[in-house]
Amino acid sequence: MSAELPLLSLLIWLPILGGIWVLTQSKENEDAPAVKPIALTIALLTFLFSLPLYFYFDVSTASMQFEEKLPWIKALNTHYHLGVDGISMPLILLTTFITVLVILSAWDVIKHRVAQYMAAFLIMEGLMNGVFAALDAMLFYVFWEAMLVPMFIIIGVWGGVNRIYAAVKFFLYTFLGSVLMLIAFLYMYKESGGQFGILDFHQLHLSSTAQTLIFLAFLAAFAVKVPMWPVHTWLPDAHVEAPTGGSVVLAAIMLKMGTYGFLRFSLPITPQASQELAWLIILLSLIAVVYIGFVALVQQDMKKLIAYSSISHMGFVTLGFFIIFSIMANTQSVDIAAMGVEGALIQMISHGFISGALFLCVGVLYDRLHSRQISSYGGVANTMPRFAMFAVLFAMANAGLPGTSGFVGEFMVILSSYQANFWIAFLAATTLILGAAYTLWMIKRVIYGVIPEDKLETVGRLSDINARETFILLILAIAVLFFGIWPEPLQNVMHVSVVNLIEHVTISK
Fold first, then answer.
1. Where are the beta strands (DSSP E) in 106-262?
2. Number of H helices, E strands in the chain
3. Per-residue pLDDT tens for 330-346?
């Protein structure tokens, strides 16, 4: 399907050019008062321009839609080729939606280099949209690497005490893993007769050895980004040191790029290797779900707890993707396999809402008391009842409470996993217990109870959330409840693309 407007280019370049324009509004250390309204306007326009992707999306076809293709580097036969399907389109909507809330969340909080802060998030938004829309491997790689720079700056400039260490660790982990992905792209470029088209890569018939090596190269890049155990150690450091907006974008969007990479590259390009090494991904996913869940249980820093929770929940996503081979071997049912992949995709979107909301809640408390330690709080509900209502809702969603979006994706993955292997489903289901344990234990200590006497001077004087903070959390609460009660709008757009992927993978292997 084509669009009258080059919507995808608009979603990439409007925030990038807008971010550059915002930078020009700051003179030395003095930020012009117009910076925040300009940044918010650009973010809102980008979100509004992303809505036609959903409303004009043809759910009956797995073909790429809203395509744009222009020559780029003729010597390499690369193209500026953009397009979306039912897998990538919801992720672009998530990106544009979250960016608006991140800009709003910084309104009264960021007082140092405001123009640079807003510009970094706008530029990063455009680059992330480029990752999800790129259909040329070289273009994808440029966006993939370029988006590291704004996040590196965000952590390094506006982060905590150890921000430089966290920023460098984040950059090195994610950058070094991507080098192997570039080597894989160059090999496939040669094998495809000088093409960098991602859809051309999908049609390659590679040898078993080549598939295995390419799969491992992709795994190095995508596993770090998810992140999967044991290459997850950069994430808690990055979250703890990043400002609230950085943590929100990191958890809500950037982690999803790793899992998106598995669907766009690993499974369709290396189906045989994906099947042969599916046991490895399933094992690493279950370790993330169970072991990292226990790690989250002992955290004393709220941000670290939510960061480890993210690793555990993302284990569900990779499990849902790679369990399809066992399902097809046992049942030959594409519908059951599709339920697992769709559940994983819904979990990606849901986790974006819930983790983003939880980090914003921690940010609200940090703005008032400048502490992320659970021990610094107690009985917050007595002085911040509105905040407590939202915090409890998002905690319940994080624990997978039925009726919230956190339940839908996890339940679909567990249900499909049961068709493959009872013990895999059993281990995956432990997240419902562990998630409730670490999340509600944090909520109990922070939100409930009488304010301890030794905290009356601090917690006892906390002010409840203002209209801006209430609006941000309310929007996220509506999203969590809406998709928890009615996930069909998401399933409708992704179903045909998911079925097409499963058929391609199982037939090609």
1. none
2. 23, 4
3. 777 788 888 889 999 99
